[in-house]
Amino acid sequence: MSIYYKVILFQVLIILFPMFVYHLFFYESDRERRKPHSKLSIILIFILILSMSFPVRFAEGYIYDFRIIPFIISFVYGGTIPGLVTGIILLVYRFIISGDGFYVVLVNYSITCIVLILMKKKLESFQKKNKLLFISIVFWANTFIVMLTLFSKNQSSQISFMLFFYTITWICMMMVVFVIENVNQQMVIREKLQRDEKLNVVSQLAASVAHEVRNPLTSVRGFLQLISDDNNLQEAQRSYIKIALNELDHAQSIINDYLSLAKPNTEEMISINISEEVMKTVGLMKSYSNIQNTTIKTDIQDSLYIKGNKGEIKQVLVNIIKNGIESMGTGGILVVRSFEKEGVIFIKITDSGKGMTKQQLKNLGTPFYTTKEKGTGVGLTISFQLVHAMKGKITVESQPEKGTTFTIQFPSA
């Protein structure tokens, strides 16, 4: 039996060593992993071939290896195409190796493949705990089929070894999942640090130049207003002054945005009726929606309370509602809902506009990023920052040409 344990140990090294190398030296986003030639896919195929090349040979025609680990992991973290590529390589190599049991492997892995493909969308939304549970269920279901096959072929003497081997396999798989989840966590931290660094740069820039720019703008605006009071001005000159004043107001608005980004006013956190604030903001934005020929519908639960700042809540809601109205162009319906569920206040703002791609969603909320031609990319950044400062969070769901839903969550006060 000692020879078996040596081969099992070698199988463990075949699995864990490449995954630790991946953890230490490679950082791939979820999108990059879904490509067939991603670093993770290449490493998993390498692990698959190596583990199948050095199996544990328990008896004539009965071999054990860790092939199921790269097979399942490629589907869960790579997606359908990398998973299918890994599965095809597995079956082809198993056929080349020959020996009894090929058709059992074919049926077993085909069923597993179908289950993993059908669960693809749910898998993408699973957190680590749910992924571990799902992978374990798939793994042990696969193991149960192998056990039934051994019983049907009067190989019950292998059952104890098979259970021992598959327990070690399951432990290794859980370690691989933890390694990849750790890489995911590092990616999130890296992106957060990059975003915070950008915010810090913008904050310093805003703090250093905003007041310097504000003063001359105020002076210019004052003199233009004085000039506009001159009765000797021609109508064309008055229109030019009016345009200049409007542009100065626009510049002032941008400066105010940068000042809000630099130092959001979150000191005064009081209990506020968010239902009333949402209704007031919707009423305020209805005139703008009428100009754009769009309709705002509401479904707002009464007496919902959160800890926050009225001015900042209004600023966030105005930003998101205004963006929703503008994304629909002329026509369309914007729906604003608010409700409480399990101690959390939800505000959902759904438009029927042009929507966004996955890449646009990923960049949403980062400084200077905007999908509008004349946008500064600061409004939503401020909104995300203000909601986060009030212990809330914003999630965004969108599909091109199907609209966008902003969901704001706050703990109930």
From TrEMBL:
One of its GO terms (biological process) is cell wall organization. SMART domains: HATPase_c, HisKA. InterPro entries: HATPase_C_sf (IPR036890), HATPase_dom (IPR003594), His_kinase_dom (IPR005467), HisK_dim/P_dom (IPR003661), HisK_dim/P_sf (IPR036097), Sig_transdc_His_kin-like_C (IPR004358), Sig_transdc_His_kinase_LytS_TM (IPR011620). The keyword Ribosomal protein does not apply. The keyword Ion transport does not apply. Its EC number is 2.7.13.3. It is an enzyme of class 2 (transferase). Residues 208-413 form the Histidine kinase domain. It holds the Pfam family 5TM-5TMR_LYT. Keywords: ATP-binding, Cell membrane, Kinase, Membrane, Nucleotide-binding, Phosphoprotein, Transferase, Transmembrane, Transmembrane helix, Two-component regulatory system. It catalyses: ATP + protein L-histidine = ADP + protein N-phospho-L-histidine. It comes from the Bacteria. GO terms for molecular function: ATP binding; phosphorelay sensor kinase activity. This is histidine kinase. It comes from Neobacillus mesonae.
